[in-house]
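User: What would this chain look like folded?
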Amino acid sequence: MSNCVNKKDFKIVKDGITYPIGIKAAGVKSGIRFNRKDLAMIYSEKIADGCGVFTKNKFKAAPLKVTGQNLSASQGKLQAVLINSGIANACTGEKGLIDAWDSVKEVAKQLKVKEEYVAVTSTGKIGEFLPMQKIKTGIQKAILELSIKGGTEAAEAILTTDTKKKEVAVNFKINGHEVRIGGMAKGSGMIHPNMATMLGFITSDISIKVDLLQEALKNVIENTFNMISVDRDTSTNDMVLLMANGLAGNKTISEKNADYKIFLDALYYTAEYLAKCMAKDGEGATKLIEVEVQNALTKNDAKKIAKSVVTSPLVKTAVFGNDPNWGRILAAVGYSGAEVDTEKIDLYLKEKIVENGEPLKCSRLELHKYLEESDEIKIVINLKLGKEDATAWGCDLTYDYVKINTKYS
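Assistant: Here's the prediction, encoded as structure tokens.
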């Protein structure tokens, strides 16, 4: 899908989650975490169409269950999102569910909106209960600070082991109407395809039927958020929410026409940008690894290989050590379970280094230099079997990853 995106149809701007008309946000200190922002809120002045995609981990966190139920009860309507960092409210049993529902009720009461129009989510340590008095006080504070300028504070408040905020915004025209998309995300560890500890929030002022909105989100996620990995650990709290309030004034998109395609391309770029930010900001990471698989027999084969290479501990450590050990890459291709003809495959690392399964003469010194000097490493694998492509993103595996995860709790 990424190869089909036409970036000429939309413009990238320096902004974030509050870029669309009618969207406000806030990020505040509630006291969950010591002396840092830890509670964020997103609010749409108009009730928006909303949809979400949730983790496939069977220990799904309480707030995700609550948010899923609310989206179902409201038939895809959403007006406010509450996010706390520091505590995941996962593996917390009945009390965790009660706390999540109490958070919903508090937001609805303070904002004077219906409870089913409220989404809640959490990120942080698993197995701990939310400090509800701090949450409730933080909700009041966040509502007072809601602003179209509050996006950056919100993006900061949702971070855990992340080292930087992740924000993006784009705009495009539909029949003379400017339409906007804004996004923010968090994620640094427990990141693996099929939603991983990652949270993504995307807003838009486009008018579109909710079933098409949901389909667009699912299609985009399959090729973006679900194609990143830091450490092969899938979190209990992964969620991506998308809300569209219709304030751009465009004629409602009700079919997959040219307008829908423009929106889909812009949404894809938004999600891909945030996904790559997460992969690059993996815990302890020094380099982003991009693996592009070309001309596979099936889409599934292309994805299998891309994921196999980007998650290989040996590939990840080789990249960290600036070691152009391309045999590790081919080994990961070989055990991926995908259809491969070993006598056809070409491999590129800065340049073509394997052709038809055989090594070409190249300078290991130059390859080492490329790995040493670049913070974004691209690996291209041409299978020459079919016409399907896929790209996955990950990061190198460093000493600091171990240090961070032995001290997290």
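The two ends are 39 Å apart (CA to CA). If you want, I can go into more detail on any region.
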